[in-house]
Write a structure and sequence with these properties.
The complex is a heterodimer. By secondary structure, chain A is of the alpha+beta class. Chain A is built from five helices and seven strands, in the order αααββαβββββα. Classes of the chains: A alpha+beta, B mainly alpha.
Chain lengths: ~210, ~170
């Protein structure tokens, strides 16, 4: 069999496979996606169901009653607890973690972040290299990193120990909002937090 | 808007079967492939002004469907109860191809590594050239060539005995 024969042998059996979804169904679903995107862009928040309430709280003059988007609490000499309540101010969290001795790169992706730059389902940024050295007990899942869980709208807590990040290593944290769509079930708004232990390089973690 | 809808309708009619077959090769399950491709076309309609100007709109649809499949699989891997996990894993790994297609062909395709299946899907079913395939998958053209060569060799090994059986009186 030459390559053409192989290609024919593979193509032929699938010739009877046809797409059965009517055009109207596709167009209708596409229109609903467009409406959802418009609503998210207008409100500028991460979840539809809680969007109006959250947006109203954020727009209160003075904003004094707005809870902080994240907190970092010292648990022991080398362990801190990170709680993420809202996908805002990743730079502040990054700065705080570095002050606590962990070289970190933190990014948050809300649903209003254009898909082309969302890291929600992306692998570790290509400029970063997984850290394979010894030291610490970080659950190393290779490039997939460690999924710390879901929370709605966002209530994710995890602990970090400085001993898990020896010199030469750091952490990349990405938290992203997403909508889980499953047939027959209501849409669920979730936040996924994913982390990777990485080699500390200027390209990955900056200066 | 009417003009756009007519354009999209024409695109959908002439490309949907090829896109479905390409995605089916990758995911191995016809129902799941239909669902993913329908979702991808819906997104294409949502972004039609941009997609219609894309150099390879079919590739955009297939790439979107495969990305949605990756997202679905990662969520299912975490959320399906442990007792259900093994059968789901087996089906997605291609252990049990489903659908009306010749099971021997589907099984041969599903035994290819995922990346080789993607190259086969784009090169054979969407008829993309090496450069475009490389661009869609985010890999080098040389890597596309290598994957395709390995896939052809593996499929030849699997399909030749079947052809001989069919040719025997």
């Amino acid at each position: 069999m030459n390559d053409d024969d192989v290609m024919t042998a593979v193509r032929q059996p699938l010739a009877e496979v046809h797409m059965t979804t009517p055009l109207d169904d596709v167009v209708r679903h596409g229109k609903s996606l467009r409406n959802r995107r418009w609503l998210r862009g207008t409100c500028g928040v991460t979840a539809l169901a809680g969007a109006i309430a959250v947006a109203a709280a954020l727009l209160v003059p003075g904003g004094s009653s707005t809870p902080p988007p994240w907190t970092v609490t010292k648990v022991s000499d080398d362990t801190i607890k990170v709680s993420i309540h809202d996908l805002r101010d990743p730079e502040g969290l990054q700065k705080e973690l570095r002050a606590d001795g962990i070289r970190a790169r933190v990014t948050f992706d809300s649903l209003s972040t254009p898909p082309s730059i969302r890291a929600h389902d992306a692998h570790l940024p290509k400029v970063c290299i997984p850290y394979r050295g010894t030291g610490g007990t970080f659950p190393d899942n290779g490039n997939m990193g460690s999924d710390l869980g879901y929370g709605y709208p966002t209530n994710i807590e995890f602990t970090l120990s400085t001993s898990d990040y020896p010199s030469g290593s750091g952490i990349v944290i990405n938290a992203a909002a997403a909508i889980r769509i499953a047939k027959g079930e209501p849409n669920q708004h979730r936040t996924l937090v994913r982390t990777w232990r990485v080699v500390d390089t200027p390209k990955c973690l900056g200066s | 808007m009417r003009h756009d809808r007519n354009d999209f309708a024409a695109f959908y009619t002439e490309s949907r079967d090829d896109c479905l077959r390409a995605v089916l090769v990758r995911v191995g399950d016809l129902d799941k492939a239909q669902e993913l491709v329908a979702e991808a076309y819906a997104r294409a309609w949502d972004r039609w002004p941009k997609v219609s100007r894309h150099p390879a709109p079919r590739a955009w649809v297939v790439r979107t469907a495969l990305n949605a499949h990756t997202s679905w699989w990662r969520r299912r891997r975490r959320e399906v109860p442990a007792s259900d996990h093994e059968p789901a894993t087996a089906a997605l790994a291609g252990g049990e191809p489903t659908g009306p297609v010749d099971p021997a062909i589907m099984a041969a395709l599903q035994r290819l590594p995922a990346r080789q299946r993607e190259v086969v899907a784009l090169r054979i079913f969407l008829d993309l050239d090496t450069a475009r395939t490389a661009e869609v998958l985010g890999i080098a053209p040389g890597t596309v060539t290598a994957h395709l060569a390995r896939a052809m060799a593996a499929l030849r090994d699997e399909l030749s005995p079947l052809q001989q059986q069919e040719n025997q009186p």
